[in-house]
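Journal club prep — side note

Before the paper discussion, L.F. wants everyone to see what a predicted structure for a comparable chain looks like in token form. Sequence:
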Amino acid sequence: MKIDIIGDIHGCLQEFKELTVALDYDWSSGLPIHKDRTLGFVGDLTDRGPNSLKVVDIVYELVKTQKSIYVPGNHCDKYYRFLIGRNVQQKHGLETTVAEYERLSAKQQEKAKEQFIWLYENSPLYAVLDNAKLVIAHAGMKDAYIGRTDKKVKTFVLYGDITGETHEDGFPVRRDWAKEHTGDTWIVYGHTPVKTPRFVNNTVNIDTGCIFGNKLTAIRYPEMSTLSVPSTMPYVEEKFRPI
């Protein structure tokens, strides 16, 4: 299996295109296609960035044609709940995606809604690939949770190993679960912005904070080499906190 897994995009379409081109994907069809590799996504396609719905449209088409692996992130989960009519707070970035959505015509809204609901409902909570040698999960995965999809595991996959406490800025305190990973399975995840890809045991965090002005990163499997492109967004230092 040869797959290039991309970190949290958050609507950064330009960087997504630049990164896939750097990975030798061809966009002549309107989608990034490689002759013998596929793309993977750790979730959080939307929110905060300028082109969330176009990113969703591309990933939807890739997954629909079985050329890509996508797992949802917490921002994806919140956007899904908005689309199905749940009462969700439009903040922490969702307001930018909703603003994009509301600028569409009624017909375009219906199409965008159908696409994302299909993408969310037809994608796994996390992906176990290559005979369990690789797991893609938005915020991470404990060894003991592989194979489970109960509420406790869903919370972990979407939000990480949260303690229930919050920092002064309101963001949750998380335990460093990666230090406890002892298996041979590679866990590829994102969610928590880091300045450079963070390798700990057989885990790697590839959310290098593109939306916060750092860079967008992909990891190539099975090579486990990384490639990044710089962000065009303003740099926000405080978003990169120690884990």
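L.F.'s comment for the group: Residues 2 and 223 are 9 Å apart (CA to CA). Keep this in mind when we get to the figures.
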